Amino acid sequence: MYRAPVFLRQLEPRTARTTSEVLNFALWPFAVMTVLHQVIVKATNFNITDDFAPVYKASLAFLNGRPIYAENFDLVDPHYLYPPSGTLLIAPLAIIDPERSKWCFDSLNAIAMLIAWLLLLKLFKLSIKSYAAPLTLLLMFSSETVINTLAFGNVNGCILLAEVLFIALLLSRREWWAGVVMGLSIAVKPTLAPMLLIPLMRRQWKVFVPAIGIPVVLTAIALPLIKDPMDYLNRTMPYSIQARDYFNSSIPGISAYLGLPSLLTWGIRIGMGVLVLVSLWLLYRYYRNDELFFICTSSGVLLLAEFLISGLGQQYYSMLLFPFLMTVVLRNSVLRNWPAWLAIFGFTTFDKWLLDHWQSIGRDLEYLRITFGWALLLFVTFCVLGDRYLAARREGRLDSGIDPTFLLPEHNPATLPDAPRPPRSPAPSAPAPTDLADPDDEQPTTAPNEAGVLR
């Protein structure tokens, strides 16, 4: 009888025997095809918003010694806002023609996001063979932040990789390299700069030498090579700091769009700032030794604060919250509740809430859902941590932490080193299947007869 070669037998479709295998077989085709669609179709098709065009134009001007920071900020088109250090690093983009350059740039960002995904799986001890791998990949590449990053030609994918590398290097105590990654990221786009508060709280001082030194050195190199360096300080930087009333989901941006009074806007910003400070204090006070949870949750709080309180917050910045969202697999995560995921729905989905028949209401729903999503997630984090603190104080166990009682050793005997084993039943029943296993696979293949002998 003919037998196919071994390498061909590996491709033979298998029938799933457990729920986990069913999910794996079902999710991988969806995940892979979604990634291919976003990279091949979304990234190469025409889009009315083009973040890459001003970047390529500035890179070409830099290589040819022409002014870079001569943008007309009265227009609502994407503007070139990268600092001189970023201009120096991205200038090679203009060596080839703009179309192929954008394809290379999008490919680089897609590869960066895939590497970040693999690193996140490793950080949270999730196997590539588990259904968590295709599920997280599918959710990432179905989100607005990934779709529009590739469609617009933005650098967010590389920034996400820098963030995940920074977290991994902090956890492994490779502080110099963590600083190098952060320094290169800040040199291009200072979005991750608030995360430097994490090594400050952990007293990892070596991080700050390259994190600050690299942007300074690159700026010093770039300034003499740029035709109009002072225009960046006099025109571009003031524009990038101020809150504009379009394509801006931060609190100041939404307030400008709705025409809210300045006093109310500052009141909301200060209120959100208080939530951030209290959340960070509780994380530092009670969770700093739980390193993965502390770093990823603190990074989420800091980035949410930046998106909400600073002058500019755009929906596709939400990609940088992926490490925070991955903490849901941790038992003490603050995201294991439905309000958190209602918030996450608000700023990750690609849905449009514009209404043809009720245009005013539709615009408000579309523009406010991102801001409300970020704010609700920050509020949920504050409430969960605050509730844990109040419960622990009420029960007099603050000295042992503020984790909920169901996570404490005395409520989980399996974690106690000296826990006595329960007496063995003379006729044990079959173990109950978990929600990740197929009940049919948990039963013996042969049944005992009345005499206890297997047929």
TrEMBL record:
The keyword Membrane applies. It is found in: Cell membrane. Residues 419-431 have a biased composition (Pro residues). It holds the Pfam family GT87. The chain crosses the membrane at residues 21-40, 107-124, 145-170, 176-200, 207-226, 266-284, 291-309, 367-385. One of its GO terms (molecular function) is hexosyltransferase activity. It is an enzyme of class 2 (transferase). Keywords: Cell membrane, Glycosyltransferase, Membrane, Transferase, Transmembrane, Transmembrane helix. The keyword Cell membrane applies. Coiled coil: none annotated. One of its GO terms (cellular component) is plasma membrane. It is a multi-pass membrane protein. Its EC number is 2.4.2.47. It comes from the Bacteria. Residues 409-455 are annotated as: Disordered. Belongs to the glycosyltransferase 87 family. This is Alpha-(1->3)-arabinofuranosyltransferase. It comes from Nocardia macrotermitis.
